[in-house]
């Protein structure tokens, strides 16, 4: 009986066996020094440059760049930005074609996937100057 | 990286859930009614406190299917909720005396915090029917002229002494409110007259619709529950208007455009107060992202951006509106924030 319950409890994890969450060390080792472009549902979502010291530069597609940093919390990678200091946490895992990420609390189907990787800095659009 | 939310279903759920509670409450009273009241009066402030996050900025150029549909449903819900509440409060409903008070308060909070922002979005829409829905909502809270004055006066003259709906630093809310009400009524009418003279066409003057619609609303209140019904409708409208005036007061308080000769500097992000909290922002259809609204008045609410370098209220917008009822405390609390933005040099065109 106990084994049955255990199997049942682990079943979701087994079905998602490929989705092994990256630790902070693994994430940092993979991403630092790169600019990764993410897509969601086939269209580009945004791009982020990972700098030394856990600093990041994030931009939604065609949006201005936002400075921030990342840290690990409860097995997730969390991001805070200067423009909005409230943390948002994601689970990252290594897929067939690079990183995948899912926003904390989101179900399957909403994940982001890496579509491009570059050693070049993030291309930043100019700040939104007042009309 | 950043998540994009709230999505349209979140706007729909957050804005319409209290209507369902209030509609059930109007008929059965009890727990439904109290839940609707608690949602508007307590839950919003509590969630802003517990989860003060800002939602992400949607990417530019993204379409938001369903965003106008949510506005339309809110508009229709408003047009049903007002007579229903008049019946529940003043008519032969089964509610107790205390429940009638709660029904009144819950409905007027929703009218001020949800129906007004939705109507505000609707009057900025190019589609004639969406625009008319916005006019209908404002007319039933006896404030139809907002549909003219907001677009034709407030957006042009914001943060100058020529806009009756922009409060200069130091002016208390109770002095601002009658000035803004009467000033926007007159300035809106003058703007409509000028528009008609320029276009050289007649047709129904919008102010006939506003005033006639207001009278028809009160008449409907009287039909539902006699003179008391008309009085309750008037009171619901007055309370909703109070919230509308408070939002106008808070969102530009003390921010002034620099004057150069006879002209003012262009409207910029620094001429509106903003607030980031995602829950009250969703409830108010991103009205707290006010700088971006003035920069892009036609931009649909899910696309409004929260900038990096914009005046930020030290509280969520609904809390700021409550605080503004006490002018002395309001002035004192806002003084350093206003001073900071007054001291910043105007943005120069890059």
How far is it from the N-terminal to the C-terminal residue of chain B, by CA? 28 Å
Adjacency order of strands in the biggest sheet of chain B: 1-2
- Average pLDDT, all residues of chain B: 91
How far apart the termini of chain A lie comes to 68 Å
The helix content of chain A, as a percent range, equals 10-25%
Strand content of chain B: under 5%
Widest sheet of chain A: strand order?
1-2-3-4-5-6-7-8
Assembly state (oligomeric):
heterodimer
H/E element sequence of chain A: HHEEEEEEEE
Helix and strand pattern of chain B: HHHHHHHHEEHHHH
Number of helical segments with 4 or more residues of chain A? 2
Helix content of chain B: 55-70%
How does this structure look, described?
The complex is a heterodimer of chains A (131) and B (350). Chain A has 131 residues and is α+β, with helices and mostly antiparallel strands. Helices cover 17% and strands 46% of the residues of chain A. Chain A has an eight-stranded antiparallel barrel. With 350 residues, chain B is mainly alpha-helical. Helices cover 65% and strands 1% of the residues of chain B. Chain B has helices at residues 8-28, 30-50, 67-90, 97-123, 128-140, 146-157, 173-199, 206-252, 278-283, 290-295, 317-323, 327-343; strands at 259-260, 263-264. In chain B, a hairpin with a 2-residue loop joins strand 1 and strand 2 (263-264). The A-B interface holds A 38, 45-46, 48, 58, 60-64, 66, 79, 81-84, 86, 88, 90, 101, 103, 106, 112, 126-131 and B 1-4, 52-54, 56-61, 266-270, 276, 295-296, 305-309, 347, 349-350.
Features of the shown structure:
heterodimer, A: alpha+beta, 2 helices, about 15% helix, B: about 350 residues, mainly alpha
């Amino acid at each position: 009986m106990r084994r049955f319950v255990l199997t049942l409890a682990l079943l979701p994890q087994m079905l998602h066996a490929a989705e092994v969450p990256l630790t902070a060390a693994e994430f940092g080792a993979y991403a630092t020094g790169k600019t990764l472009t993410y897509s969601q549902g086939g269209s580009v979502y945004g791009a982020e440059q990972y700098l030394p010291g856990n600093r990041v530069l994030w931009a939604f597609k065609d949006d201005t760049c936002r400075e921030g940093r990342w840290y690990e919390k409860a097995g997730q990678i969390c991001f805070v930005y200067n423009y909005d200091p409230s943390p948002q946490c994601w689970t990252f895992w290594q897929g067939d074609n690079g990183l995948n990420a899912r926003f904390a609390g989101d179900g399957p189907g909403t994940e982001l996937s890496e579509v491009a990787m570059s050693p070049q800095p993030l291309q930043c659009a100019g700040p939104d100057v007042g009309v | 990286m950043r998540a994009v939310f709230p999505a349209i279903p979140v706007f729909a759920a957050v804005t319409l859930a209290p209507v369902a509670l209030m509609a059930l409450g109007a008929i059965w009273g009890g727990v439904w009614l109290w839940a609707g009241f608690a949602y508007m009066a307590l839950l919003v402030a509590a969630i802003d406190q517990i989860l003060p996050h800002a939602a992400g900025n949607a990417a530019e150029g993204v379409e938001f299917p369903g965003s106008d549909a949510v506005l339309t449903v809110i508009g229709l819900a408003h047009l049903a909720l007002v007579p229903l509440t008049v019946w529940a409060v003043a008519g032969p409903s089964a509610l107790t005396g205390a429940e009638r008070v709660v029904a009144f308060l819950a409905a007027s909070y929703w009218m001020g915090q949800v129906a007004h922002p939705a109507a505000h979005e609707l009057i900025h829409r190019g589609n004639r029917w969406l625009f008319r829905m916005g006019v209908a909502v404002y007319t039933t809270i006896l404030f139809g002229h907002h549909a003219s004055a907001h677009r034709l006066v407030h957006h042009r003259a914001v943060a100058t002494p020529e806009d009756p709906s922009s409060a200069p630093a130091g002016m208390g809310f109770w002095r601002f409110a009658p000035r803004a009400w009467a000033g926007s009524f007159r300035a809106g009418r003058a703007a409509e007259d000028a528009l008609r003279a320029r276009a050289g066409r007649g047709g129904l003057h919008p102010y006939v619709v506003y005033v006639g619609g207001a009278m028809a609303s009160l008449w409907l209140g009287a039909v539902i529950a006699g003179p008391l019904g008309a009085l309750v409708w008037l009171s619901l409208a007055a309370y909703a208007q109070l919230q509308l005036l408070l939002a106008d007061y808070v969102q530009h308080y003390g921010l002034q455009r620099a004057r150069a000769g006879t002209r003012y500097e262009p409207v910029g992000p620094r001429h509106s107060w903003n607030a980031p909290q995602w829950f009250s922002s969703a409830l108010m259809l991103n009205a707290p992202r006010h700088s971006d609204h003035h920069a892009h008045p036609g931009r649909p609410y899910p696309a409004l951006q929260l900038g990096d370098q914009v005046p930020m209220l030290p509280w969520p917008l609904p809390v700021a509106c409550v605080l503004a009822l006490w002018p002395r405390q309001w002035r004192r609390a806002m003084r350093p924030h206003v001073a900071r933005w007054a001291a910043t040099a105007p943005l120069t065109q890059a």
